[in-house]
Amino acid sequence: MEEIESKETKAPSRLMTIAAVAVLTLVAGGGGWLAGMLLAPPPAEKTEIPAELPANATGEEGIPKMSAVAHGIVQLDPITTNLAYPAENWVRLEVALQFDGAPDVALAETIHQDIAAYLKTVSLQQIQGPRGFQYLRDDIQERVDLRSEGRVTNVMFRTFVIQ
């Protein structure tokens, strides 16, 4: 008689555990969705690049080169230079600058020259591996911040190749 009672009490407890886990999962998922909706910024409206841009103004992906600007982003011309040590290694870097407000093409050209000059002082050992690349990004971001006096809000690395 006791064996029958113990089997009957196990079945409802398993069913209740499964139901409780399912309800908690739904509550957690709903809470995550609600928090995401409250904390995430609203999606930006899509705007099109005007068709009147010069023929050489846009790159393959439609981001303007230094001579043309759109949405506060200026893509700098590619920088190709040799490293300080070993001198036979070359680096190619493409970056885009995001300005706070209206872009300044003259400032972008100055930043372009500053980045090119800085890359000539870097050795291969300094930029090897993920940590070295992060240091390079931080150094370039700091140089851009100093040169632009806060007018450039973001430096976006498009390509980085060492040969």
TrEMBL record:
Broad class of where this protein is predominantly found: membrane
Transmembrane feature ranges: 15-40
Keyword Transmembrane on entry: yes
Location in or out of the cell: Cell inner membrane; Cell membrane
Chain coiled-coil ranges: none
Protein name: Flagellar protein FliL
Topological relation to the membrane, as annotated: Single-pass membrane protein
Keyword annotations from UniProtKB, A to Z: Cell inner membrane, Cell membrane, Cell projection, Chemotaxis, Cilium, Flagellar rotation, Flagellum, Membrane, Transmembrane, Transmembrane helix
GO BP annotations listed: bacterial-type flagellum-dependent cell motility; chemotaxis
GO cellular component, one term: plasma membrane
Function: Controls the rotational direction of flagella during chemotaxis.
Family, as annotated: Belongs to the FliL family.
Pfam families the UniProt entry points to: FliL
This protein's record includes keyword Cell cycle: no
